[in-house]
Specification:
By secondary structure, this protein is an alpha+beta fold. It contains three helices and six strands, in the order ααββαββββ. Strands 1-2-4-5-6-3 form a six-stranded antiparallel sheet.
Amino acid sequence: MARGIDRKPVDTDGSDQDPKQQDENSETVSDVSWELLNVRKHWARMLPNSPIYSFLFSSLSFESATHGRVVAELLLSSNHINSKGTMHGVASSALVDCMGGLAIASTGSDHTGLSTDIHTSYMGGAKEGELLEIVAEVTKLGGTLAFISVTIKNSSQGGRFVATGTHTKYVKV
């Protein structure tokens, strides 16, 4: 367990709106885990400061999070496609990088570390308009390093693997 984690839900948009007054199709604080709220809060701070993530992942949708595990979806657009008409390898590797940090954020940490090593194995293709499911899981969070595994599957093709990755991050702050 990480040190000094506040397990209270965090406000993701700064509004003071009573969650019970939201429309029936929107989530309330009680519907969402504190881990998912922390991931969304971290993403909201990170996205405007990262041109590459803004270009590639502005439509990334966070579906769930538990301690050390994040599940997200991404609808592929032309920004993700190579000259052969399939998902570009750099988009897969960037997902491993991005989701690795967010898996750490799901532990309650506001500091998601610095990348020291990233590996991506490409296993299948995906095309524009197809939906990906990305799962990132912290396999070990130590005092100095964190180790994360990431799977990218093509939901539009029955969950076929697109890529897997590992990410090591320096987390000692």
